[in-house]
Design a protein that fits this description.
This protein has three helices and nine strands. It is of the alpha/beta class. The strands form two sheets. The protein has a six-stranded mixed beta sheet with strand order 4-3-2-5-6-7, sandwiched between helices. It binds inosinic acid and magnesium ion.
């Protein structure tokens, strides 16, 4: 793997953005039963940083959905390969996702989690590629907006490479 990588978001920019999101979430969920549902694997670094900036208690859960396969384009078929393991009924669920692109995965996941009857269900995405949306998905908390380009780093991969990079890069 020696693709050309161009720096897009520095450690400092990411840290400031994560801190901003955490403070918004800490205010909005101050009196709620917050459950963060991280979407594996891409959101693992983002979730880890975000929870440590929260000033309120939160329960951590993970789901894994298979959608992309080993290429850049979504195949459109989505399945849950690892489901939540605690009851979400009556809880205030906040999905933590790395990127919302076409919106297909998140639309599927939102419907899947809604069937657990949470008290509320919202979405926090580190990166929103709004211009690429194919189905409508409401992003309640957005870290960065971007129009085009394929990104890696900070948990986000290209064929399982580059997840450990501390910054976010565009792949050429
Ligand atoms: P969607 O169903 O098209 O919205 O796909 C969203 C998922 O595709 C994200 O959670 C990522 O896992 C993956 N994805 C979308 N864009 C990128 C990218 O630029 N880099 C790496 N993964 C991406
Ligand atoms: Mg993802």
């Amino acid at each position: 793997m020696n693709k050309e990588l161009k720096l897009l978001f520095s450690r400092k920019e990411i840290a400031e953005t994560v801190a901003r999101l955490a403070s918004e979430i800490s205010v909005d969920y101050a009196d709620k039963k917050l459950v963060l549902v991280g979407v594996l694997k891409g959101a693992f670094v983002f979730l880890a940083d975000l929870v440590r900036e929260l000033t309120i208690p939160a329960t951590i859960e993970f789901v894994r959905i298979a959608s992309y396969g080993a290429n850049k384009e979504s195949c459109g078929k989505i399945t849950v390969t690892k489901d939540v393991e605690i009851p979400l009924e009556g809880k205030d669920v906040l999905i933590i996702e790395d990127i919302v692109d076409t919106g297909l995965s998140l639309k599927f996941l939102i419907e899947h989690l809604r069937a657990h009857h949470p008290a509320s269900l919202r979405l926090c995405a580190l990166v929103d590629k709004k211009a690429r949306r194919e189905v409508e998905v409401q992003v309640d908390y957005t870290g960065f907006a971007m129009t085009d380009g394929f990104i890696v780093g900070y948990g986000i991969d290209f064929n399982e490479h580059y997840r450990a990079l501390p910054e976010i890069f565009v792949v050429d």
